[in-house]
C-alpha cells in the first residue's frame, strides 16, 4: 500500500480534491483486497469526506457501494443499506441502469442475510426487471441465477429449477447455478444429473464453489455405496 499512500499524500499537498477522492477510492480497494475491512472503510469514508461536494457522482456511488458491501460482510446490515441507498441515488441520477440493477441485487442480499425474505425477493425482482428493461441480458441472467438459488433455499424447488434451467445456457459457467441444480436433482433422486452438474462446478467454479462440489460429490458417492 506504500505506493498508493504516497499518491494520497501527493494530492493532499496539491489540494486537488478530485484526484484525492480517486486516490482514497483506490486505497480503499487496496485494503479491501488485503481483507483489511476496517482500513478499507476508513479510506472510503475519507474519500467521501473529500469528494461529496465535487461533481464526481459516479465515484461517489461506487464508494458508497463498496462501503455497503463491506458493512454487509460484517453483518452490519442497517449500515450497509444506508450506504447502498446512497449509491442507488447516485446511479439513479446518472441514469446508470447497469450499476443501479447490480446495486439493487446487493440490497436484496442484505435483506436475505437478515432473513427478511419478502424484502429480499422484492429487490431481486426489481433488479431483474430493470436489467431486462434496458436489455442488459447478461446481467439479467446473472440475477436470475441468483434468484433461482434464493428460491431453492426457500423451498420453492419447482420455481428454482424452472428459473435456473432457463438461464443455464447463458450461465453455463456460473458455479452457484450449477451447484444449486445439482442439489435439486439430488433431492429429486436423479443421481446422474446431480453428479453431472456438480462435476461441471469442478470445471468452471471458483475454488470456494469447487470445495462445495467436492464435498457434495463425496457424500453422493457414499450414499451410492461407491466409497
TrEMBL record:
It is found in: Cytoplasm. Keywords: Cytoplasm, Repeat, TPR repeat. SUPFAM superfamilies: TPR-like. Its main location: cytoplasm. Signal peptide: none annotated. One of its GO terms (cellular component) is cytoplasm. Pfam families: TPR_12 (PF13424). PANTHER family: TETRATRICOPEPTIDE REPEAT PROTEIN 29. This is TPR-repeat-containing protein. It comes from human gut metagenome.
